[in-house]
Amino acid sequence: MRIKENFQITNAGGIFVSAKTLFRDLKVGEYKILKGKCIVNGQLVYVVGALPPDGEYLILATDKNPVTALEEYKKRQGIETLFQCLKGRGFNFEDTHMTLPDRIDKLIALPAIAFSQCHATGEWCASQKPIKIKKHGRKAVSIFRPGLDHLGRILHSFSDLYHEFYTNLKIILLPLISVKSQNPS
C-alpha cells in the first residue's frame, strides 16, 4: 500500500514521525528498506521508500517481503493503467452497466485484447514520433492514447472503404470457401 509523505509511522525508537522524515537522506533514483517492522495505521508492517526522478517520494507499507515491494508495486501501476484505459480514458467499460459476473468476464476479454493492440500500436507510434515529456518528468499521454487514436483514425477511414474491402475479401476467400465446400473433411 502506498502511503503519503506526511503519514505518521514509528521510527527505530518507536516514536511517530512523518514517513518523509525517514527517507529524507535518499537521492534521486535511490531506495531504502527500513529495518524491522514499523507501526503504520495501527499495523506492524515493513516500510520501503524510494525517490523517483519526479522528486515525489514513493513510500510503501507491506506485510510481504520488503525486498520485492517496489517491483510488485510497478506491476500494480500497470494494472491500474489497464483499468483506467478500459474505463474513462478509452473504452468506457463502465457504461455497459453490467452487474452479472459471468457476463462481465465474457465482455472484458474483448476490451483487454483491444487494449493490447492499442498499446502495441502506441509503442510503434511513439517510436515514429516520441511522446512529449512534461515539466514534472512524466509523459504528456500514456503509450495507450496514441495507439487508440491511430487505430481510431484507421477504422474511421475504413468505414469509407468498407464495401471495397469486403469485395476484395470475398475475392481472396472465395477460392478457399469453394475448396472447403467441395471437400467437407
What attributes characterize this protein structure?
alpha+beta, 48% helix, single chain, 185 residues, two-stranded antiparallel sheet
Would you kindly provide a brief summary of this structure?
The protein has helices spanning 19-23, 69-86, 101-128, 144-160, 162-182; strands spanning 2-3, 8-10, 16-18, 31-33, 38-40, 43-50, 58-62.
Report on this model:
The protein is built from 5 helices and 7 strands, in the order βββαββββαααα. The chain starts with a strand and ends with a helix. It has 185 residues and is an alpha+beta fold. It has 2 domains: 2-74, no CATH class; 87-182, no CATH class. Strands 1, 4, 5, 6 and 7 form a 5-stranded antiparallel beta sheet that branches. It has a two-stranded antiparallel ribbon with strand order 2-3. The longest helix has 28 residues, at 101-128.
Oligomer: single chain
Helix-strand sequence:
EEEHEEEEHHHH
Task: Report the uncertain regions.
Answer: none
Number of domains: 2
Beta-strand content bin: 5-15%
Structural class, please?
alpha+beta
The total count of helices amounts to 5
How far from one another are the termini? Answer: 57 Å
Helix content bin: 40-55%
| Structural Rg | 25 Å
| Molecular shape | elongated
What can be said about the biggest beta sheet? 5 strands, antiparallel
Number of strands: 7
Mean pLDDT: 82
